[in-house]
């Protein structure tokens, strides 16, 4: 007899033997528009049984990899700082055990907790960021710890020119001005990604890879808090993930699925497939 414990499909190896560790960060307390991302990680795990473990794109199978899924963290909904501290601690533990963390959000602020721990281990860290939104506000309604500010907080750790942003098509004028000075922003598409990743690979630079699923067009992925027209399609995202996978990824996340906002379930299925391809693409 075995316990009936739900993991992402094909990710039920033991902790010791696994190179990749999945965990959920079900937090959405700073969502500005439509909440629900706190249910993202559980929905991805549950609905993953609707997809295959095998990827015909990569000719790889999750059953051939050792991946441990430790479920969702129990995060304090009222306190962003407390939730981030728990995410940071979890990420630090996984890294110290020589494993690669992949976090399933949650809203995008959760990325900051993981990046804090990854940056501590890899001070020369660079970040590859897919998103519709710049997320570079200094504060949002006076609050510094908001999903709208998450890359600005990451910038304060990583420094000038270390954050590579793609598909960005929404933000305040000030955020785009800030990006001109301080980040490597590529608007609307993945143009320039090959060159950025070639440069990162050349120097074996440690990379944290954060995918806000709202980089996808709402016609592909509408189950999200702040959908933004004019996004990329799934095959473009897949191709971009495979490009980033050639770099030295040391941590990753996918975030901003709010499953209840798409009653068809298609957005959750898209998130599951994206996560499968991300896991399979990482050579660990
Ligand atoms: Mn976004």
How would you portray this structure in words?
The chain is α/β, with parallel strands linked by helices and 284 residues long. The protein has a single domain (20-281), classed as 3-Layer(aba) Sandwich (Arginase, Chain A). The protein is built from 8 helices and 10 strands. Helix 7 links the parallel strand 9 (206-212) and strand 10 (248-255). The longest helix has 17 residues, at 80-96. The structure holds manganese (II) ion. The site of manganese (II) ion (MN) has 8 residues, from loops.
Brief summary of the model shown:
This protein has 284 residues and is of the alpha/beta class.
Give me some keywords for this one.
284 residues, alpha/beta, single chain, eight-stranded parallel β-sheet, two-stranded antiparallel ribbon, 18% strand, Arginase, Chain A, binds manganese (II) ion
């Amino acid at each position: 007899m075995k316990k009936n414990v739900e993991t992402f499909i094909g990710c039920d190896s033991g902790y010791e033997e696994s190179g990749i560790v999945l965990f959920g960060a079900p937090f959405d307390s700073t969502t500005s528009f439509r909440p629900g991302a706190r249910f993202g990680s559980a929905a991805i795990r549950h609905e993953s049984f609707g997809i295959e473990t095998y990827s015909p794109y990569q000719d790889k199978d999750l059953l051939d990899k050792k991946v441990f899924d430790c479920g969702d963290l129990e995060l304090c909904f009222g306190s962003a700082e407390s939730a981030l501290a728990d995410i940071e601690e979890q990420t630090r533990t996984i890294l110290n055990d020589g494993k690669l963390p992949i976090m399933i959000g949650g809203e995008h602020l959760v990325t900051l907790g993981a990046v804090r721990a990854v940056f501590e281990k890899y001070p020369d860290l660079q970040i590859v960021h897919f998103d519709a939104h710049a997320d570079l506000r200094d504060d949002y309604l006076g609050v510094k710890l908001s999903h709208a500010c998450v890359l600005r907080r990451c910038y304060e750790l990583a420094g000038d020119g270390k954050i590579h942003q793609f598909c960005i098509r929404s933000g305040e004028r000030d955020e785009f001005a800030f990006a001109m000075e301080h980040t490597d922003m590529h608007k609307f598409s993945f143009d320039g990604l090959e060159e950025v990743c070639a440069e990162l690979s050349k120097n074996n630079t440690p990379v944290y890879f954060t995918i806000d699923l709202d980089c996808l067009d709402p016609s592909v992925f509408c189950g999200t808090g702040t959908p933004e027209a004019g996004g990329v399609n799934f095959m473009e995202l897949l191709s971009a993930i495979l490009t980033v996978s050639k770099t030295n990824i040391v941590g990753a996340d996918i975030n901003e699925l709010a499953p209840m906002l798409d009653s068809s379930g298609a957005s959750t299925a898209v998130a599951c497939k994206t996560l499968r391809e991300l896991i399979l693409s990482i050579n660990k």
